[in-house]
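seq/struct pair 1
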Amino acid sequence: MVLQEMKWATFRLLFYSYLGFCLVTGIGGFLTLPVFTILCLGDWRFWRHIGLGYRVYLHGWKMFSKILTGENEGYMFSVPLRSPPHSVPDRQLAKLSPTWELGNSCGPCNQCCSKFNCPILTEDGLCKGYESFFWRYFNCGRFPSNQREIEYYACEKWLVKPHKGGSYAEDPAGDYLGEEPVTAID
C-alpha cells in the first residue's frame, strides 16, 4: 500500500509542478496543450480546446491567489497527496440525501463548478473534464469529502455522515459510524 500511496503522491506533485510551469512561464500551457487536455479534459484532441487556453490560464492564477490567501476553503487542492483517486465520493464519508430525487446523477445542478466559474464547464452545464486525471485526483471526483464543502457549495444532493462524537467529518481519516440517520442540511 505504501508504494501505491507514493505513486498517487508523485502524480499529484508532478501535476502541481506542471501547473506551476504553465502559470509561471505564461506560454507553458499553450506549448504543452496536448498534455493539458489529456490531464484536465481527458481528450488528446487538443485542437478542439484551443479556445479554452486563455480562460484556463486566468482561472489558474485566480485559484492560486485564493490558495495563497487562504480562501480555498472547501474546494480544489485540499486533497491529501497520498489519497487514492476517486470518481465518486467515499460512501463511508457521504451518502445521498433522502430528499434528493435524481439518484446518483447531479441532474441540472452544477453549483460546485459554477460557484467559482470553472472554465471547463460547458454552456449546457456539463463538465468537459469529467473522469479525467484532474477529476479523479482532485476534489471534483471525490466531492464531498467534508461538511465544509457541502456548506460552501450549498449542495442538496449529499450528506456527510457524522463520526463518533456527533460532529461532522472533517477528514478522511476519521472514525465514522455506519448508516446513522442524518437530517438534510439547510
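seq/struct pair 2
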Amino acid sequence: MKSPSQGFGRFALIGAAALLGVCAWSIPTLSNGQTMAERLGYPEGRAVVLLETVDVGFCPEGNLAAEAALKCGAVTSAAVLPNAPWFEDFARRLRAQPDADVGVNVSLMNPFAGLRWRPLTAAESTSLTDRDGYCPKTLTQFLSMATAEDVGREIDAQIAHARKHGVEPTHLSAHHGSVYGRPDLLKELLDASRRHWIPAVLVDLSPERLARFQAEGVPLDDRMTALIASYTLPTLDELVFAPRADSYEAKKAATIETIGKLPAGLTLFSFHPAQVSHAMDEALGEEWRQRVWEARLLGDADVRDAFAEKGALFTTWREVMRRYDGQFERQAEIEEASAIEPENAVEGE
C-alpha cells in the first residue's frame, strides 16, 4: 500500500497557516505590546506551553499513547476526533481522568486511505461526504464541496457527541486546518466557539508572521484576517508542531532545538504520539514511524531537560480560560463600581 506521508508536508503547511489569526482581545486595562500569556497574567518574558497530543480517536494505538501521556503528565492536553472510529474508546478511557484537558479537533476531512470515517450528520449534510459517504480525502475536495450550513451543523454535532460521551471540550480546532481554507467556513467555527464559549485554536498574526506565510504561498486574504480580527476569546502567540526527521535521533535533536527557540508567550506545541503497531506501520508507513517517535520524545529525559533549561511553564486550556474569564469578571466589577454614584452626592455638585 502506498504511504500517504508524501502529502503530509502540504497538509502541515496549510494546517499551520490556517490556525493563524489577528489577536483582537481588547480588555481596556491591558496595554499594547504584551503577549497573550502576559495578558492572561503569566510571568513576563516566559515561554508558556500547552503541550498537546492531537489526532486522538482514529485508532487504538494512538488512544493508548494519548491516555498514557495525559496520565503521567507528559502532555497537558489532548484533541480528539469525535466522529473517528475509536473516539468512544478514548472517551471511556477518560473516565479515569475526569479533569483531563481535552478539546474537539473537528474532523471534516481524512487523508488516511485505509482508515475512513463519516461526518456525524452524513444523512443530512450531503456536501460533507464523498461518493462513498465518507469524509473527503483531500483538502481541495472538501473545500470545493462543503457548504457553510453543513459545516456549522457538523461542528455542533461533534461538540454534542463529545459531551454525550462525557468529554467537555476545553478548546476547538480543525483537523488538517480544514475550515481555515474559506472565510465562510472559518466563521462557522468561530461562531461555534463563541456560542459554546470554547476557545478556538488561533495564532496572533504579527506582521513578521504574515510576511513569512505570504512568502510561502499561503492564501491569507483580507476577508479572512478581518473575520478573525473580530474574535475576542484567547488566542495563541505561537503554534509549533513536532518536527519531522529521518531518524529518531535527528527528530530528537530537532525537537530540542525547537524548544530552545520557543518565544515568550503562549505556545501550543503539538505531538501525534502512537504505540508501535505493525498493522499501522504497514498502512501508513513513514507517517506512522513519526508518530511512534513522537511518543518516545514525550518520555525522553533529554526533551524534558530542554524544557526545564528553557524555563518553560506548562499550562492547560482550562487554566487559560479561568484567567480569561477572571479578567472579564474583574473588569465588570470595576465598571460597576465606577457607575455607582457617591452615597452622599448633592444634586448639582
